[in-house]
Structures are given as structure tokens and as C-alpha cells.
């Protein structure tokens, strides 16, 4: 899985010095905490200060906010990709697809602002978040193709549309925190339109 900041070729990086690795790890830990507490638009200056480094050090490791977000979300991304592989041979491909999309909605809902950022990254191939979007798109496409091949999902449904829908659902749920069941309801309602009809 590529974690480069562009959608182009990936240039192998030299191993970090021990002090640089410590700074990198502290920045990631503080960013994860700040994003959880304040959303993905949390102050990068505060992230750097809490990590005990200057803002210049943060930007040396992460040239922009999306690069930092991409690094923070690698663990969750790996979990989503592992789950897609687990569901790839499910007896009910449509159910597997729906379960996986639900996992994406829950992931996007963990950090305020993530759903919006992922939506914008899907249309911006220069975004560092492409490193999250592309593997998710590829994993979802395999689940969708299998569901379509089984005849349970309409052939005109695209994985890009489904990912935009899941991000839109996560965004709607983010805007309505008083209704924790909203995301599940919207997902069920939306996915009724996936099913192939006789």
C-alpha cells in the first residue's frame, strides 16, 4: 500500500534518524488525539506544540494537512482493506458489500471533517488523501463486481457513486449528532436502490 503524498510514482524514502522518527511518532500520536477531539481541521500549530516540536518540523514530515491525515488514517485503512478481503468470498455478496460500506461510514464518522475531506479527495488526484481513497476504491470495486455478478446488485451501480454516498451519509450523521442511528438508517434506505429487480 502506497502512502506517498501524490497519486504518481512512489519514491522510496531513506530510513529516518532516531530523533526524526521520535518526532514523527509524537506528531502522529498528537494529530490522532487532536483530530478525535477537534475534527480534522484542528490547529496544526497546536499539534506541533503538543508534540514538543516546531511547526516547521511538522511540515518537514507532513507537507500539508492531507498528508498528515493520510498518515493518521493508515491503521483504519488497513483494517478496512483486511475486512474487504475477509468478505470477498462471502456466500451473500450483496450483504458483504453492504457490511463493508457500513464499516466505511463508521470509519468516516470517527473524525469530524474526514467524510468531507475524503469526498474532495476522490475528485482531486493530487491530494495526499488519494493514498486512502485509491485502495478503498479498489477493494470496494471487487466486492461490488462480485455482487453484480451474482445478480443481486444492479449493473449500472459504480463504486465511485457508492463511496460518495457513504461519505455523504457520514457527513449527514456528523451534522446530526443527536441522532446516533441516522447513519444506519440512511445507509439501509440508500442501499435499497442497489438491488437488482426482475
SS-based class: mainly alpha
Number of strands: 0
* Largest sheet geometry: none
Number of helices: 10
CA-CA gap between termini = 40 Å
Order of helices and strands: HHHHHHHHHH
Question: Can you tell me the residue ranges where pLDDT is under 50 for at least 5 consecutive residues?
Answer: 1-12
Q: Rg, please? A: 18 Å
Oligomer: single chain
Overall mean confidence score, pLDDT: 86
Strand content: under 5%
In which range does the helix fraction lie? Answer: 55-70%
- Principal-axis shape equals elongated
Task: Describe the model.
- The chain is mostly helical and 198 residues long.
- The protein is built from 10 helices and no strands.
- It has helices spanning 18-38, 44-51, 55-61, 65-72, 74-87, 93-108, 114-121, 130-149, 159-174, 182-191.
- Helix 5 (74-87) runs antiparallel to helix 6 (93-108), helix 5 packs parallel to helix 8 (130-149) and helix 6 packs antiparallel against helix 10 (182-191).
- The longest helix has 21 residues, at 18-38.
- The protein is elongated, with a radius of gyration of 18 Å.
Give the SSE map:
Elements: H1 18-38, H2 44-51, H3 55-61, H4 65-72, H5 74-87, H6 93-108, H7 114-121, H8 130-149, H9 159-174, H10 182-191
Helix pairs in contact: 1-2, 1-4, 5-6, 5-8, 6-8, 6-9, 6-10, 7-9, 9-10
